[in-house]
Amino acid sequence: MNKRLSYQEAPVIKTELPGPVSKAMLEKQSQLETSTRIYTEYFPVAISDARGSTIKDMDGNILIDWFAGICVLNLGHAHPAVLKAIREQIEKIVHINELPTEARIEFLETLVSTLPGELQNNARVMFTVTGADACEAAISLARFVTKKKTIIAFGGAYHGVHGAIVGATGNIHYREYAGVPPYEIYHLPYPYTYRFPIKVKEEDVAKVVVDSLEYTLKDPYSGVGPVAGVLVEPIQGEGGYIVPPDDFLPMLREVTEKYSVPLIVDEIQTGVGRTGRIWASENYSITPDIMCVSKSIGGGIPVSMIAYRKEYDQNLPKAFHLGTYRANPVALAAGRAVLEELKNSDLLEHVRANGETLKKRFEEIAMAIPEIGEVRGKGYMIGVELVKDQNKTPAPELASALRSEMFQKGVLMHTCGHYSNVMRFMAPLTIEQDLLDNGLRIFEQSLRRVTRKL
C-alpha cells in the first residue's frame, strides 16, 4: 500500500460536469447507441483514462472513483501487476476453446488454492461468460445432480437478468422485461434486520428465516416442491449492501446439509477481497457446495465461473454448459495476477482494518445527520441507508440527489437497495487515504446540501 496508483490529486474540477468535450461525445453516443443506458444518466461524462481510484474525463477533470465499475476493479484501474499479465498474454494467444494454455492451468491452480473451506484444493471449476451465466450454470448443476427443480432464493437478491436466472433476482421488473416465468424459484426474506418484515427480536431474525427454509424442505405440503438448491449472497449487493447476522450463513449451511440440498453461494460482488477476505464465505467459516465467481476476478476483463464439489462432476454430460467466450486466456492471466496480489500482499489485512475505520466515520456522520437511517458493511462493502423520518420511510429521491451532487463535486458513488435509497461505498481496495478523506468530506457536505434543498 506504499506506492501510489491514483492520480496525485483528486478531485480536480476544471469545467462544469459534463464539460464541452464530454457533452459532444455523450450526444454522439445517443445517436448511435440504445437509449436504455442508465449509467450515462447517473454519471454523464466521457472518459479519457483512469489510474488507481481516479478517473480523468475528456475535459481534464479528475474524479474520485467510489464506483469501481460495480466491484469489477477491486485492484483499481491500470494496476501494474494486472497490466503486466495482460500485455504478456496478448503476445501469446487471446482466444481458444477449452484447450489448455499456460494461463488456463496457472489460473485454475491459483483459484482452487484460494477457495473457502473444504473446496480449497478439492473442487472442480466450470467456466462461464458473465456473472448471470455463472449463476445460471450453478442452478442448472444443482438441478441436474439432485434431479429436482425448485430453487430457493431471497428477497432483494440480484443474480442476473437473462435466461432462467432472472427468476432468482428479487426485483420483478427484470422478469417482466425479459418476459419469462420464474422457473420454479421461491423467495424467502433475507435477514435484513433494519427492515425485516416480521416483528421479532433482532437476534432472532436469522433463525426465523432459516426455520422458514426448514419448513419448506421438510413439509411435503409447504407448496414449494422438491428443492434442488438454495442460492444466497453472503452479503446482499444490489439489495442494499445488507450484512446478515453472523449466525445466518452457518445455520443455513447446517440446514442445507441436513436435508442434502446444495448450498449455492453467489460471490460475484462479495468475492475477490471486497470484504477483507478473498471470499466473503470465509468470514462465516462455511463451505459452499457451488460458488459463483465473476466481476473483479478478471481485473476488468469479462470472465466468470463456478467452483463446486468434485462429486458433482460425476456423470455430467459433455457440453453441459456452453459459451464461445468462456475462459478467455487474457482474462485468466489477469485473474491469476489479481489472486496472487491478494494472496501475497497485506492488502486484505488493510481492507479489514481500514474498512472498520471507514464504517465508523460514516457512523459519525450519521450521528449528525438524521436522514441516515443505518450504516452497515464489512471491509470495503459499506452501505448507507437514507430515510425521510424516524419511521424509516425510504428516501430514494435523497439518494438520487446525493449521487448527482457528489458527481458534480468529483466523486462517483452509486445507489442500491430495495427502494434505491442506499448509498454504497465500493471503491477499489487499493484506494489511497487522501481519496477516502476527500470523498468522506464531499459525501458529508453534499448530503447536508441536498437535505436542505429537498
TrEMBL record:
The keyword Transferase applies. Coiled coil: none annotated. CDD domains: OAT_like. SUPFAM superfamilies: PLP-dependent transferases. Its cofactor is pyridoxal 5'-phosphate. GO terms for molecular function: identical protein binding; pyridoxal phosphate binding; transaminase activity. The keyword Transferase applies. It comes from the Archaea. Belongs to the class-III pyridoxal-phosphate-dependent aminotransferase family. This is Aspartate aminotransferase family protein. It comes from Candidatus Marsarchaeota G1 archaeon OSP_D. The lineage of its organism: Archaea, Candidatus Marsarchaeota, Candidatus Marsarchaeota group 1.
